[in-house]
Amino acid sequence: MAVRTPSQTDFTSRLHSPAVAARVGTWLGITFGICFLTGLVSHWAQVPDPLVAFPTRPAWGYRVTQGLHVITGTAAIPLLLVKLWTVYPRLFGRVVAWPPRAAVVHGLERLATLVLVASGVFQLVTGLMNSTQWYPWEFSFRPTHYAVAWLAIGAIVVHVALKLPAIRGAYARDVEEDDPDHPPPYDVEHSRDGVMSRRGLLRSTWLAATVAVVATAGATVPLLRKVSVLGVRTGDGPQGLPINRTAVAAGVSEEATGSSWRLTVLRGDSGRRLTLDDLRALPQQTVELPIACVEGWSASATWTGPRMSDVMALVGTSGADVGVYSLQTRGAFSTSRLPANFADDPLTLLALEVNGETLSPDHGYPCRIIAPNRPGVLQTKWVTRLETL
Amino acid sequence: MSAGRLVLAVVGTAVAAYGGFLLVHDRLDDLPSALVWLVGGALVHDLLLAPLALLVLALLGRLLPASWRAPAGVAFVVLATVTVLAVPFLGRFGALPDNPTLLDRDYTTGYLVLVGVVLGLVLAGALVRSARRRSRPEDLSAPLDEAPADRRDQTRPDTP
């Protein structure tokens, strides 16, 4: 049997068309655009010392932007698969090797497509895997996902620039018709009508994206919890709240959080050492705030404890960034920087209780940070030291 | 290329170059692993997923009776893509023994229910559609079926 590389004219379905690619591509561009912008928000929230302070309001802001980030990224998975299937014959298009000028243009176009596909697939695959906390790779997820985001969004802009006439041509007529200036890759003379129209493929694609969203979004949208069969979390857990990192995983021993535990509050050379009873003796506040994780899940809870500003007032400070140090001995985020606007915010607590109960070890006993509009990884648990920076 | 498109292409190239700069400058140690995943993702799609999809579609086209093919196509688009999405859940690769609140659903059952619901809905839709068509044979607007004959002629200039 003779084996040869397929050529793009081997593909005969009318679905492999610019008409379909342009329309699916539009929604892919929208979802990647939303992912990029909400990703920038998340990056801004996590940069240690941003040029402009990250705002503390709306309190639910990060829950919405990061939830949207993961939801639109999830919707993009079916969109990207259909888009790549639609344009797949182009992979086997004729290679232009002569004249040199045309060869260079052709090579650049192919390179742009490779960057586009590689970065787009990379973002969706690593993002999906990160949302389920599956890390089989060696690179550090957050900075790499951030860098490739720029690569992907740039490649999309270049792609739109290159394809704009074909996109215009596609939208200028019915989806079942072809633009003579931008013919489909298949051999028109031997094309066949499939069982599915192009409109049928588009509708199936929108349906697939909707199913993908409904099946997963319950991890952050309470209304969908029951139907999201692929939700990464049910939203339940001890004391009515899921846990991202347990005390065991963080290397926090019972000894360290036992009766000998003290909270050190420092301002320069002067400081105070507080017992848990000292913290309970401060005016207690109760606030309702979400834990909104970078992985996209979120859940709201009721928190009780002294205001951070009241704790810091014990050493006579306000208007300063606060370094937060955890007992955590394993994993990232054992320290965080609480910017001044967060430290002074009346909603920011050093929480001692969640949903009416003393924090369990996995929720950060003896005390943890809870602040509005803040990624979960920065809501430091098992706090041992607060220090004016 | 018009001036607008040229500006767009230059801006896009600059933005992508910034991403490349971040990868090379800030994450040099991560670069080999990142490159493996960047190129690997595209290769897995082009050499595995796409041919597999084409193979399944070809088989469906051969094995199914004509009237079943359009609904099967709809089901395939939805289920093939959602199955790719379901892999990390079905495998529970990120599950941690000390944290029962992570990946805390029965994903296998949930996935099978989802497949059942999608197949059921597509089947019901196909039955309703075919019943309607039988009662009103002049209705050519049915979008899940073949392109209407008159339009097919317009889009195929080669048709004699």
Second-tier CATH architecture of the largest domain in chain A: Up-down Bundle
State the assembly state of the protein chains.
Answer: heterodimer
Rounded mean pLDDT of chain A is 94
Mean pLDDT of chain B equals 86
Spans of chain B of at least 5 consecutive residues whose pLDDT stays below 50 are 142-160
- Major sheet of chain B: none
User: Ranges of chain A with pLDDT <50 over ≥5 residues?
Assistant: none
Q: What summary fits the major beta sheet of chain A? A: 5 strands, mixed
**What is the CATH domain class of the largest domain in chain A?**
Mainly Alpha
Shape of chain B: extended
Tally of individual helices of chain A: 9
Overall radius of gyration of chain B:
24 Å
How are the strands of the biggest sheet of chain A laid out side by side?
Answer: 2-1-11-5-6
Instruction: Give the termini separation of chain B.
Output: 36 Å
The helix fraction of chain A, in percent, is 40-55%
**SS element count, helices of chain B:** 5
Task: Give the secondary structure arrangement, pairings included.
The complex is a heterodimer of chains A (389) and B (160).
Chain A: H1 18-46, H2 61-87, H3 100-131, H4 141-171, H5 198-216, H6 247-250, E1 263-267, E2 270-274, H7 276-281, E3 284-292, E4 298-306, H8 308-313, E5 322-326, E6 335-338, H9 340-343, E7 349-351, E8 353-354, E9 357-358, E10 368-370, E11 383-388
Parallel strand pairs in A: 1-11
Antiparallel strand pairs in A: 1-2, 3-4, 4-8, 5-6, 5-11, 7-10, 8-9
Helix pairs in contact in A: 1-2, 1-4, 1-5, 2-3, 2-5, 3-4
Chain B: H1 3-26, H2 31-63, H3 66-91, H4 107-135, H5 149-155
